[in-house]
User: Fold these one by one.
Assistant:
Number 1:
Amino acid sequence: MTGDRLRQAAKALNQGVSQRVEGGQAAAFQATLNAAARGDEDAFGALWRNLQPTLLNYLKVIAPDSAEDLSAETWLEVIRKLDRFQGDEPAFRSWVLTIARQQVVDWRRRSARRRTEPLSTGTPERAAPDWLSASVADTISGREALSLVTSLPPAQAEVVILRVIAGLNVAEVAAITGKTPSAVRMLSHRALRRLAQEVKATQSDG
């Protein structure tokens, strides 16, 4: 299916990072999480190394100019709240990305308050390229994948980064973005169709 091919094409974005904990690793994750919640720096470092690439890629899509700073703010908030979190590795990933999105919302509000001049019409909505057919799924690089995703309209780009790269399901994406599952599916379908067309056009030009 298209989603599976997209995951294959995006693997370079998160090389060496486990996207899901399976089998006996689930217990190891829980032990690491519990140790981190008790203040174990090595355990927290392990959580950071596992999720930071996905988090940073997500922030590069929804807030590219401040992704590094917002990543740091997200992890600070995670530290503050970690002892109250309960759940497995997929739930932890969803929780951290939810915190990240709220950091972006707060950052935008602060930025808006600091402005002393009226807002301009802003950056025009980015022309939406289109994504990966089967013929290019195995050839596009991770850097190219991220570049294509960030060229989408913001709502589509956010859904794609969460579904394809972060590996979240429709319900998890809906909870993070505040959209209905139907809206998430619609945005994902439109984005992937447009991206497939763009990749084909790029190959034709080359």
Number 2:
Amino acid sequence: MTTANKVTIARILLIPFFVVEVLYYVRTGNELYRMVGIGTFLLASICDGVDGYIARRYNQKSELGAILDPLADKLLLVSGVVLLSFDHEPYLDSVPLWLTATIIGRDLLLLIGLGVIFVTVGKVAVQPRIIGKVATVLQMVVVLWVLFKWGKAWLFGLTLSAAVCTGVSGFFTYGTACVSSALIRQVLPNPEGNLTLAAECINVGNCRNHHKQEPKEMSMAIQVGAKAPDFNLKSKQAAGLVDVKLSENFGKKNTVLLFFPAAFTGVCTQEMCDVTAGLQSYSSLNADVIGISVDTPFAQEAWAQKEKISITLVSDLNKETTKAYGVLFPMLAGIGDTAARAAFVVDKNGVVQYSERTATPKDLPSFDKVKETLARLK
């Protein structure tokens, strides 16, 4: 279990403590209980940002975290809003019941709707939207406003804003999921097939151009102990097009090669941004990181500038290096041959010390194992 997951679990454990403190306050009127309740709520809210930072900064994103983090948010906010919906006069103002109904109704409808979509077509990833984050912040402000006793003058406006943003975010989330599932069904007549390819296709935006094709046999990635094929590929940087040659690192430092399918797609952006955030850890292990795709160097540069990706990106437009490393993915989602998602560690002598080609383009390599390999080589 990662540190980020432990922080998230700690947030969940703080929730019953917060509820109990508020209940004690409205029964006794002892201000100490209210202050402790406020402090607990603030601590849980701050930890929401802390676990997210740790996950991004130290590459600790995980499937467990993707479940626990939103669950912790929902439990904290729903507990606070429901608790403050009851009549606690004369100690606390009440949150309007229509806000409570909006929050709970939205979450229930999303849960049912996404459950139906999952049963119908399988897993559909829905990216968080800014309106959802705004709704979460407003809900937190409403709870704190009541607990701090800041009066009713602004409370109605805050609760109305929170309700509107909550409803709109639910509409966008459910709508996006429905559109994605419809596209998946259009792309893949057999939904039980590999939905990952369809998800990548949705990110690229070429689902409508997909045509069913006979699967091609995929090659096997180059194995540990093999001599790493050298390459001389173009990278678009501030100084213009420059040559990046693997063998320039031989005798100096180890090299991490990260093959990825395409720029401007969701999972690839997540991977490169996460690696960029933790780039210092690779430098401390005496390693250079190079990202390789079949995009043009100009597309890679535009993507890197947009997403603030600072690792070296090189273009294997003719796919020769991708083929040499055995990671060509034929006809990805029907849009053409691309690089599969893969990670290699090449030591100072040019020998492959770690090799991983992920099962699907939507899976990320095991960066913990990559770093373990680098630590041994250091």
Number 3:
Amino acid sequence: MVRSLTSTSWLFKKRTDYDRLGSDWKLIWSDLVKPRGTFRSGLVSTIPVPSRIADLRVLMAVVASAGAGFCQAPLPSARPGFEVASVKPTASADGRSLIQAASGRLTMRNLALRRMILIAWDLHDYQLVGDPAWVCSEYYDVQAKADSGASVQEMEQPILRALLEDRFRLRVHREKRELPIYELAVAGGGAKLQRSREGSCGDSCGFHLTTDELNRTLDGRGVTMEMLAGNLSRSYNSSLGRNVVNSTGLSGTFDLHLTWTVDALSASPADMTGLSIRGALQEQLGLKLESARGAVDVIVVDHIEKPSAN
């Protein structure tokens, strides 16, 4: 900071400020001023040469301008989006839905707008709040093309988000809300779990879900209780409609096999053809679900509009 051009000036308060100048500017600086001292404690004292004061003013203006650049954040990268996109109310009359994503391409047919939002933000059904009723009842067809280098995950998430924000004027924000949840705990008779042998599953560790009408079969190899709780949180898998958190206190990895009937939660006992998810967990794995409340990450819809014609 220059205090006076006719007296001793502390032009650089820190040596790092001087070091930031390029070599060409350092040469100009050396020509404009005569150093009276040396860098001590990060400071330099200088006396400007009177005949070059005008030049010094020019230099200081340039230095000030350049210094401002050091504080500027880099410009954000270009926002992802589609090169070409068509969004129309669904024309399908057969009730079948289709989601097909490939590198640079995305096709959605007969899909509820709410389902698209869940996919774009990677949400469970209970994590989307504040959306109007028509978001759940209106179905759309989407045909979109993006850069050929875009991955499937990019097509289904950041690029789909950009499309929804553009065509539906969708605006959302994230927050945590206290909601009903389930705690996965060990049942009274103790856990009935088989521990995994180290390296037994190799690259195939994880879950495999098989569906047959309303029946579900979940096989897990080398999975933790945290992973099981996360899998049970998925509405399509279990129809629980709540976040599930691990409260078993069990560490390590396990191999498991679980079968249940999806609609058993709402069916009457006479209609049940298989165990509910609760019954299957207790009978087959020695685990139980306990109702509780806890903080859940949600997406809140602030604004959304029906799309205009393409």
Number 4:
Amino acid sequence: MEILKCVDAGMPGGEITAVVGPSGAGKSTLLRAINRLIEPSSGEVYLDGVPTSGLDPLQVRRRVGMVFQIPVLFGGSVEEAVLYGARLSGKDADPGRLLEMVGLDVSLAGRDPQALSVGQQQRVTMARALALEPEALLLDEPTSALDQAARRRIEELVRDLNTRLGLTMVFVSHDLAQVERAADRVVAYWRRKGAWGRGIGTISSPVRESGRGDSSRGGSSMEGLQTVGSALLTLGLVTVAVALSFYERLGLEKDIGVAVVRSFVQLAAIGYVIDFIFGLDSLEVVVLLLAGMVLFAAWTSARRARDVPRAFLVAAVAVGVAAVATLGLLLTLRIVPATARYLIPLGGMVIGNSMNAASLTMTRIRDDVAEQRPKVEAALALGATSRQAVAPILRTALQSAPIPLIDATKTTGIIFLPGAMVGMIIAGADPLEAVRLQIIVLYMLLGSVSIAAILVGTLSYRSFFTPRNQLQTSPPEH
């Protein structure tokens, strides 16, 4: 029987090409021919315009890596499994860096690879292939043996490796929704007239326009409708809240309604914005979005802290510095990659919590200075500087700002599970991976809130005093 007859397909460098078609059409055979695990009876495979039949098969396989449907690992540890191919070719490779590249913790290096989950083993095989520094990577149904959550993580890894390394990738899949999420182009097989397996043709066509097929889109339109329907059903709970407010005459019906509508519109809008930015794959656009978030946070904080002089400027500096310092440290230590998928949600958490800390600190200083004015002036009369006179007020304000986050951190895992961790677990992630990410988030927020509160305290108290260490007789002009 002949298969792959009359196949003529191009797979552009730097892109992800999906190979789809019915079972038995020869999709895996195509990958094996590209990798020279088999030799075609006729025809030719070209690599960068050069026929591979004239190249050393070992060199071809080192230039074009392959990941199989069922992971096969060698060695007694994950590190040995990752370095297996590199050692055969005499290459030096850093197993820790490779594990991080495929989203695995470096601590797994000493583990028995057979003790890993199938999804983790598949990531190890991808790290093993990357150790050879290939020009292209072939993936033969790499997600077929995985559950839905693990499948999505592999899809995201494929997109991430393609984006970060510019790696040409070819993967076989039966899942058209997966192809839509992960591929730039598609090579499709269909049966022509005649015996099965003969005269199978191909067409190559773009799947993605301006990055719109990114895995961040998360599936088909039907799945999207089901998600929206589920969200609308939860409005029943809101109806209960409105009914209780009306029954108890709390007067919150309007506020609840406004909150529901605004949250829906705002979340939908930011969802489309983030989806668009993911498609652009531009770090500059991510920075602009985060800067806009900082300015809006400063405006919101200034509205809360009315009568605090230069509140907008103080909040903008404090929140901005906290965001830059926190995210900069995460990037410098290579805890997270410099991609929109990480920087936008983490930046949002940092900016939101820093904004709350700035608001709490400014309003507490404003209220305490007004309430304790005789005490402050008594200290000034004794020769204290404005900083010394307001020191107890500053201390109280700085202690109050991070208390909600500190209490939440203390009770995490006992009284409640944080949102990021809950979301990952519901999505099917490994609970230990969810815990690791949540720990990073909690510690990140503690640092950013402390930075914002200290900066706000340092910058805002001076506005309540004249250059001569006197209390302002009335709130100065904004």
